[in-house]
Amino acid sequence: MRILALDTTAKAASVALWQDGRAEAYSFAENAKTHSELLLPMAEALCKSLSVPIGEIDYYAVTVGPGSFTGVRIGVCVAKGLAFRFPKTEKKNCVAVSALEAIAQNLVGLDGIYLPVMDAKRAEVYNAVFCMKDGVLTRLSPDRAISLKALGEELSSLYPDTPIRLCGDGYAVARAALEKYPLILPETPLLLRSQNAASVALCAERAIARGEAVSDEALMPVYLRVPQAERERLLREAEKNAQKPSITQP
After folding, report:
1. For residue 51, is it left (φ>0), alpha (ψ between -120 and 50) or beta?
2. Is the dihedral of CA 205, 170, 143, 65 positive or negative?
3. Where are the alpha helices (DSSP H) in the chain?
4. Are 74 and 53 within one domain?
5. Are residues 7 and 90 in the same domain?
6. What is the Cβ-side half-sphere exposure of residue 199, based on CA atoms within 13 angstroms?
7. Does the bond joining 66 to the residue before it have cis omega, within 30 degrees of 0?
8. Is position 249 within any domain?
9. What is the pLDDT of residue 88?
C-alpha cells in the first residue's frame, strides 16, 4: 500500500511517500515560495526520484486542519485534485488527518503528555492533548482553539507532576506562556517539533485500517474558528448595522 502524504498547515510544506509501513522518501521546504508553488512539484519530484508514477498511489493523505487557512485549503485542494485525476475503483482514496495528531506522532517513544500547539495568534493556540497508552497514541482532548491562559490552568490542574512535551509551530509562544505555571516542561528536540508529512502518513495508515478513507468529494478542510476575512466582514456588518438610525413607530 502506497500513501502520498501532504502537509501545508504551517510555514513549511512537506511531502512523504509511505509504502508498506515505512517512509520511503520525505521532502521538506520552507522558503519564500508559497505552498501553491511548492507542493505539487515537490510531490511529483519525490515520486519521480523513486520511479513511482504518481497515478499508482493508493491513498492521498493530507492534514485538513487546524492551521493556516490558506495553507489548509491548498493542501486539501491538491489532495482532492490528485484523487480525482487518479481515481480508484471504490473512489475512497483520500485520508483526512488532524494536523495536531500528526505533530503529536513525532513524539511517540517519549514519556509524558504530548502537547501539539499551533500559533493561532491573539494569545491563542490550536491544541489537543495526547499520551501513549498501551503502546498506542491516545487522544485526551478534541482539537480546539484555546487561550494560553486557559491551557496553562487546565494543564496545571490535570498534569502538575507529569512531563509536558510541547511540539508544533507554537512551541516558543506556548512555552513562554506555560513557564508561568507549575508544570514540568522538558525541552523537545528541534527535529521533533515541526509538522512532518511522514507522521501524517503514519496517522493515515491507522485511519485506513479503521476504514476512514473518503472520496475526493468528501475530503474537506476543518477550521476551528471563522477565517479572518470572514471575521472582518461580520465586524463591518455589525458596525454598519449599529450606525443605522432606529425607526420609532408613532
Report:
1. left
2. negative
3. 35-49, 69-85, 99-105, 148-158, 171-178, 197-209, 228-243
4. yes
5. yes
6. 23
7. yes
8. no
9. 80
- Quote the domain boundaries for residue 74: 2-99+195-227
The answer to whether residues 15 and 27 touch, using CB atoms and an 8 Å cutoff, is yes
For the chain, 250 residues long, give each residue's pLDDT as a single digit of tens.
999 999 999 999 999 999 989 999 999 998 867 899 999 999 999 999 999 999 999 999 999 999 999 999 999 999 999 999 998 867 899 999 999 999 999 999 999 999 999 999 999 999 999 999 999 999 999 999 999 999 999 999 999 999 999 999 999 999 999 999 999 999 999 999 999 999 999 999 999 999 999 999 999 999 987 655 454 554 566 566 766 665 555 4
34 within domain boundaries: yes
Distance (Å, whole) CA 75 – CA 97: 11
Q: Is residue 180 packed enough to be buried (19+ CB in 10 Å), middle (13-18) or exposed (0-12)?
A: exposed
* C-alpha cell, 35: 505552498
Place of cell 506522532: 105
- Does one domain contain both 94 and 206? yes
Same domain, 118 and 151: yes
- Give the number of domains in the chain: 2
Would strands 113-121 and 124-127 be described as parallel, antiparallel, or unpaired? antiparallel
> Do 175 and 142 belong together in one domain?
yes
User: Could you tell me the CA-to-CA distances from 63 to 5, 189, 221 in Å, in that order?
Assistant: 8, 22, 8
